[in-house]
Amino acid sequence: MTPEFAPADAASYPLWLVRDEAPDELPDALDEAARAWVEACGFTGEADQLCVIPDASGGIAGALVGIGPHRDTPPRSRFALAQVAAALPAGAWRIDNWPDGVDPAETALGWLLSQYAFGRYRKAEGAKARLVAPPRVDAERLLAMAGAEFLTRELINTPANDMGPDDLEAAARDLATRHGFSVEVTAGQALLDGNLPLIHAVGRAGAQAPRLIDLRRGDSGPTLTLVGKGVCFDTGGLDIKSPSSMALMKKDMGGAATVLGLAQMLVETGAAEGLCLRVLIPAVENAIAGDAFRPGDILTSRKGLTVEVNNTDAEGRLVLADAMALAAEETPDWLITMATLTGAARVALGPDLPPFYCDDDAAAAAIMRAGQRNWDPVWRMPFWQPYEEMIEPGIADLDNAPSGGMAGSITAALFLRRFAEGAGRYAHFDIYGWQPKPAPGRTKGGVQQGARALLGALPDLLVK
């Protein structure tokens, strides 16, 4: 599925945006009959109101959309006008007026995102109305953003029977073929031979072999390494999840899906040019079998740090640790991890606002600003030093699941930071990767988080 704008030269219907503060200020193009129709329909310009206007032959003359009052505060919903895209008849539409406070780029991206529907197992269609790209927006950049999000959504939405480690590798190889990445995969016993023991330990009980997928593009310039958690299904291991907690665990590879989408976006927007880009995905199933790793096991990581396993359901940080240690050996300028890592992050900030961690104040501020500019909000959380002792069990260097249930997202981030040593700068995103209920531009299901924020912040991040 590919997002699209209507061709600029297409025959298109006009769409007018009307505030409820001035419902009588209707477009001059409307004749007396059309104005009578609008009045009869009770259109007042309230937010989300839609009035499709017929022409004299019974066809479509255009439509009015209510956008509510002008506010100085941000609206409650991103992509609010995308809701209209799903309600309008199929065809090409153009917006003929832009009231103050309405962002053409946000509107256009929301319309593109509304075209997505997950139709792998039954026919499904997104919005059929197509928007003519507004003047002065970067249409190609918006198309790249939407296409990357479609890729991420499709990967997350696909259930584990069709999105195991084999399938995730195939998706990575497809991306590599389309966008000029080299691919190297280390799987099964070769993980032990290659000193990636934590990835092997977590995934060895799975039906498909655990593996590390390594994509590279570019051979000069600043170095950016993205590491995405690729737990294709998480039973919790021997510390098994309840059925309700396991229900959405096909999305536990959301970090991998997000870094693949981000990598595609970087290439298609041109941001990857002059950049050494590396993508690492530890792809595993956290399953239960006779050779599953156990609570109480002490594992030795690639970095040499020992880890006491106090909960097999805290497996994501283990597979990330080995991938991060490998990445840090090349001292990248930036190492960034994306992972559906902790329930604590959802308790703190909910499903729509992922936390991120970064020690560089200027870079963190740039990421926050870029998230707002690119309609991809994120929120900075602290690497809180006093909690370091919580991840040090005494019997081993590190504890993968400190007892007590406090500060779970922070302690997970502190755990990961131990394996980022050697990288120039490090940021970690504890994403959710799921839209619990439909919203404008976002169907229920898999969703991309943090990628557009990073794309927008990249010029600032690459400043030494």
Automatic annotation (TrEMBL):
Keywords per UniProt: Aminopeptidase, Hydrolase, Manganese, Protease
Q: What InterPro entries has UniProt attached to this entry?
A: Leucine_aapep/pepB (IPR011356), Macro_dom-like (IPR043472), Peptidase_M17_C (IPR000819), Peptidase_M17_N_1 (IPR048816)
The UniProt GO MF terms for this protein read: manganese ion binding; metalloaminopeptidase activity
Q: Does the keyword Manganese apply?
A: yes
In this protein, which residues make up the domain named Cytosol aminopeptidase? 311-318
Keyword Protease listed? yes
Q: Which CDD domains match?
A: Peptidase_M17 (cd00433)
Alphabetically, which GO biological process terms does the record hold? proteolysis
Xref: Pfam families:
Peptidase_M17 (PF00883), Peptidase_M17_N_1 (PF21337)
The Gene Ontology CC terms held by the record are:
cytoplasm
Name the protein family: Belongs to the peptidase M17 family.
Note the PANTHER family from the entry: LEUCINE AMINOPEPTIDASE-RELATED, PEPTIDASE B
Q: What is this protein called?
A: Leucyl aminopeptidase
- Tell me the organism: Paracoccus jeotgali
